[in-house]
Amino acid sequence: MIDSHTIRVNTRGHCDIINITPQIEGILSKSKIEDGLVNLFVSGSTASISTIEYEPNLVRDVEEALEKIAPEDKKYHHRETWHDDNGFSHVRATLMKPGITIPFRDKKPLLGTWQQVVLLDFDNRSREREITVTIMGD
């Protein structure tokens, strides 16, 4: 059996990290599927889905690490194509990936004690992000 949903999230951009675990738990709790896999995919090439211990200092650590890996103020060749100065956001999203799959049992995601699902928006402006949630199982 397959069940599909959409989550819409407004973001600030610039490495905005948003906990979407409550939305995922809410969708699973209402699903007719008890056990299986939930796949999450964010549309667009400047955002990612991942997991993290969602606490302010670790969020800051992730933001700082990504700034070191793909700095916002570096010159990116992407600017030559679209003149939008968001090459850094594409690089970050490519490294972090657009989606994940999480197992669930009894309508609850099998996350670790300190593990939450997050949307990361790397673009250089605010956006409305669309996340496709596909539930597969019995």
Can you describe this structure?
The chain is α+β, with helices and mostly antiparallel strands. It has one domain: Jelly Rolls, CATH 2.60.120.460. The protein contains four helices and eight strands. A five-stranded antiparallel β-sheet has the order 1-8-3-5-6, covered by helices on one side. Strands 2-7-4 form a three-stranded antiparallel β-sheet, with helices on both faces. The protein starts with a strand and ends with a strand.
Q: What Rg do the Cα atoms give?
A: 16 Å
Counting structural domains, the number is 1
Terminal residue distance: 6 Å
What is the string of helix and strand elements? EEHEEHHHEEEE
Strand pairing plus helix content: what structural class? alpha+beta
**What is the total tally of β strands?**
8
- What integer is the average pLDDT? 97
- Contiguous runs where pLDDT drops below 50 for at least 5 residues: none
**Per CATH, which architecture?**
Sandwich
Q: Please, what is the CATH homologous superfamily?
A: YjbQ-like
CATH topology label: Jelly Rolls
Largest sheet composition: 5 strands, antiparallel
- Can you give the helix content as a percent range? 25-40%
Oligomer: single chain
**What's the number of helices?**
4
Strand order in the largest sheet:
1-8-3-5-6
Strand content: 35-45%
The CATH class assignment is: Mainly Beta
Overall body shape: elongated
